Amino acid sequence: MSPGTPHGPGGGPDGGSVAGSVAGYVVPTDDHHVHSTFSDDARSTPEENLAAARERGLRSIRMVDHVRTSTTYVPDFLAAVAALPPVDGLEVVTGVEAKLLDTAGAVDAPAEVLARVGGPDGPGRVLLADHQLPGPDGPLSPRAVRELLDGGLARSAPVEMLVASYLRAVEGCGPAQLAHPFSILPKIGLTEDDVGEDHLAALADAALAHDVVVEVNEKWCCPGPRIVAALADRGVRLVASSDAHHADDVGRYAWLRGTAGGRSGGLAGEEAR
Ligand SMILES: [Zn+2]
Ligand SMILES: [Zn+2]
């Protein structure tokens, strides 16, 4: 099935799997989010991830590592990926994953790296991550957001903040990829049902205007079928991503293919990034 050709709701082979209905929107022989030992919480080298991609017959792999404003390894990371031996039929591209900091769209990455995203000597994409909630005055941990909600913050406010941050960030960055979009919602007691159609329309417009792709993320099991369909129907490109932190997980999509039950969840440590 070609990307963007939906199964339709409940139209997967098993007829009823919620997760299964996202599979038709992405190319499962791609993996657009794979970490290496350049990330302090990942365990496989770029060489090992490349070997896994080759073994699994992937056609594209995006090697990505976590950055902060203080990160200095990006030139070494890009050189290591560039030095990998070519594999027939496998495209190797790069990215850096950075957290959204605030509703003005600030991104936790070195300015010189952000300035080179999409250029000949920079990472191919910047992956914009909702590891914390980008608030008006800076990132808020899930716990802080839950306390604000308990204290009377409107239930609609966190999604408004996150969408505002996405919209502003993609205007100011080179080519971007939304990393596990809305993964923070379950951590703060909300769900994807709290994301309105107006939010999705605005996100789709911004994605199309600024060369943004949106992940369907295996590790975090998000976004779900409604958001995937809403974005795809507006022409947004969706990409499969394992968010692998070990070569064993490269290109493996049990949830995305609808063969795993429930949410597999992610690593708690991501909240602190
Ligand atoms: Zn992440
Ligand atoms: Zn990641």
Topology, please?
Elements: E1 30-34, H1 46-55, E2 60-66, H2 74-82, E3 91-99, H3 111-114, E4 125-129, E5 133-135, E6 138-140, H4 142-150, H5 157-172, E7 176-179, H6 184-187, H7 197-209, E8 212-217, H8 225-233, E9 238-241
Parallel strand pairs: 1-2, 2-3, 3-4, 4-7, 7-8, 8-9
Antiparallel strand pairs: 5-6
Helix pairs in contact: 5-7
The structure holds zinc ion (2 copies).
Per DSSP, the total helix count is: 8
Number of structurally distinct domains: 1
Order of helices and strands: EHEHEHEEEHHEHHEHE
Distance between the first and last residues' Cα: 36 Å
**What characteristic shape results from the CA principal axes?**
globular
CATH class: Alpha Beta
Q: Tell me the CATH superfamily.
A: Metal-dependent hydrolases
DSSP, total strands: 9
Q: Helicity range of the residues?
A: 25-40%
Query: Mind telling me the C-alpha Rg?
Result: 18 Å
Given as residue ranges, the uncertain stretches (5+ residues, pLDDT < 50) are 1-18, 262-269
What compounds sit in this structure? zinc ion
Strand content: 15-25%
Mean pLDDT: 90
Q: Output the CATH topology.
A: TIM Barrel
Strand order in the largest sheet? 1-2-3-4-7-8-9
Biggest sheet architecture: 7 strands, parallel
What is the architecture at the second tier of CATH?
Alpha-Beta Barrel
Helix/strand structural class: alpha/beta
Describe this structure as you would to a colleague:
The chain has 273 residues and is α/β, with parallel strands linked by helices. The chain has a single domain, classed as Alpha-Beta Barrel (TIM Barrel), CATH 3.20.20.140. The chain contains 8 helices and 9 strands. It has helices at residues 46-55, 74-82, 111-114, 142-150, 157-172, 184-187, 197-209, 225-233; strands spanning 30-34, 60-66, 91-99, 125-129, 133-135, 138-140, 176-179, 212-217, 238-241. A 7-stranded parallel β-sheet has the order 1-2-3-4-7-8-9. The chain has a two-stranded antiparallel sheet with strand order 5-6. β1 (30-34), α1 and β2 form a beta-alpha-beta unit. α5 (157-172) runs parallel beside α7 (197-209). The protein is globular and about 55 Å long. Bound molecules: zinc ion (ZN) (2 copies). One zinc ion (ZN) binds at residues 33, 35, 97, 179, 243.
